[in-house]
Amino acid sequence: MFPSEIQAFRRHWAEKLAEDALARRVVAALWRIRGVYVSPILQRTRGENPVIDAVIANEVPEVTRHINDHFRALLALPTARALGSNPMAFVVEHGIRRARGGVPLRAVLQAYRTGHKSYWTSICTVINQLATSPEAGMKTTMLLSDYCIDYTDLISAIVTDAYVAEEAKLNEERTRLSIAVIQGLLRGELPETEQGRRLCEQSALRSGRQMVVVVARGGALGGHGQALRERGDLATMLGQILCAPAFGCLVEPRIEDVIAVVSCENAAAENAAKALRAHYRSPSGHRKSDIRIGIGLDVAEVSELPRSFKQALLSLDIPSGAGPISYLGEAGIDAYLWRTADATARRLAPPLPAEVRSGPLAQVLEAFAASDLNVKACAHRLGVHGNTVYHRLGRVQRLTGIDPRSFRGLSQLIMALRLHDGARSHSTQS
Q1: Is 0.85 surpassed by the pTM of this model?
Q2: Which of 62, 255, 360, 386 could pair with 379 as two cysteines, CB 3.0-4.6 Å apart?
Q3: Check: CATH 3.30.70.270 for 202-331?
């Protein structure tokens, strides 16, 4: 609120009080004895608001001064008494202090309303003492009642503006700090600053506790602004789920994905997967089909978090039968190996003719493996005669020189198929 608005408020009520002699006498009398009312106001505020009572318990002298400043401003604003160029600076400072202390704004405003009732009680007491007639007392009571309501509205607006502005500043600072901390953790480094270490402690991210990295990816194909909004929504969703009481969590939205570093007393990855799946199964769960969430493996040291990060990224590419959430701990060793195979592994895999890489021959290899090398079960799975299975397996052996009816031979052929599919998938994505 601008000082000019406060000065306009002051002029308006000075004119109003100038028309009521009893009101001026009441204000003057209260000004002389205002210190007497500070302690009762303090006690009433503490008694009616347990949140504020807990705060005040640690700063009674500061709050006592604040109440005195309020009573002083309340009585001086509609008069010619000097209050300086910014008479409500103490209210602004109070809003900033309460935002920094994490006191809910609702509790701050409730305390101001309680103070209003206490100020009004003292004003009514003096009106009754000085009024020469019931009519004069009623007239002054109505005037000062309107003034106190306007004053409470004024200070509520000022403290709210100051609180919200400071809270926005603190959120920005916390966001910058959180991003810096997460980036360090993903490098396996603990924060160097006291604020960073405190943030990790508050988030229960420390060596000796189970930790895991979660990566969420997907979202809008539209403009940059839409993509950023969806990343923000996804980060909020992850934060709500993975910052629940059972977990500690820091979340960072990035341009292409959202990163969460999560901790839990035990089985952090497994519990994170359960919590995310429970959310997706719920009626209010996230329903975007293009979202993928990858979860790495548990680590017990901050220095090991880079490995969990790489695992989470890897798990995004491993198909999961459990919806959009893919937890690497549930992936088979075969899926992991063919996803992580390097150029050397691909060269060592037996070359597959085009006829084997797809179509009936590829299908018979997959079905034969799924049937535990049982020809009858494989034929039933494919809906063909057993002789057809024998014929196709023989055809594969003639084309590749590898016997698919042996465990070793079939394992080599299945791995070669997987590597081919993986290479084709990566080529398509590129």
Answers
A1: no
A2: 386
A3: yes
